[in-house]
Amino acid sequence: MSLRSEYIMSLSGINFSENNKKDLITLFNKYLKSGMHGLCFSAYGENQGPGSLVTEKQIRQRIEIIRPYTEWIRTFSCTDGNELIPKIAKEYGLKVMVGAWISEHEEINEEEVSNLIQIGRDNHADLLAVGNEVLYREEMGEKTLLDYINRVKKSTNIPVGYADAYYEFTDRPKITEACDVIYANCYPFWEGCNIDYSLLYIKDMYNRAQKAAKGKKVIIAETGWPNQGSTFEGSEPSFENALKYFVNIQNWVKEENIETFYFSGFDELWKIQDEGDVGAYWGIWNEKGEPKYEK
User: Fold this and answer.
1) Quick check: 265 and 62 in contact, CB under 8 A?
2) End-to-end CA distance of the chain
3) 3-state secondary structure (DSSP) of residue 50
4) Please, how many CA atoms are within 13 Å of residue 23, restricted to the half-sphere of its CB?
5) Could you tell me if 129 and 98 are in contact, meaning their C-beta atoms sit under 8 angstroms apart?
6) CA distance linking residue 278 with residue 289, whole number of Å
7) pLDDT tens column, 195-245
8) Cβ density class 255-266: b for 16+ within 10 Å, e for less
């Protein structure tokens, strides 16, 4: 093998060529048990989704499952019971990046943002996120989003940011400037990347977000790989690929000290309607809260 080939392989992550399925499961569980920085968290149970009421009991059940494996959780909404998650998470010793779900619905936005501010004032949050991919979904204009971000910044002393695809922070310099911290969603899968090059790809995504941030902290707010569903261009969902991606990401972000929220804690079947069959299978645990990668 040439020196160039060896260099490319090291950049591409761990060489899995001699690892069978059993080896990959062992590696995965080694990294999982060593703990991760952060995990994207949803308390939705079976047959639930946005609009469902989340109870304190189910929040506690889900937190007890993930608590041994992560220091932080990231939430996405401050309504329908989700506003209870940060306080409960704090009881379990977790740090929380609290998100308000912003969309085209002004009345719901008002409730989300008001609850986000209150959670911050109650000291139940360590980071605040005003919206997730609302610009990518084209559900809101930049000016309206800026108004929400600035309103939250003026109302709390907790760092405030906005979460979206990494390239939006290059394309939207006013949003980047308004944020205290940059929350970059980085998905090689959704850009059709083959698993063999996925680590190289996310490194480029992260570097582009860093360049746009101009010295502000960049957190990878979401990244992951599904274990089943339809292939997306060059990206193939599979049990083995999900394991490889998790191991490579955890190895890289720990070596480079990059704060990262892995997506996701649990499978969410409701996502099939928005993202197709692949949307439901990004979790480390299934929709029942059972581990997916023990055997």
Assistant:
1) yes
2) 34
3) coil
4) 8
5) yes
6) 18
7) 999 999 999 999 999 999 999 999 999 999 999 999 999 999 999 999 999
8) eeebbbbbbbbb
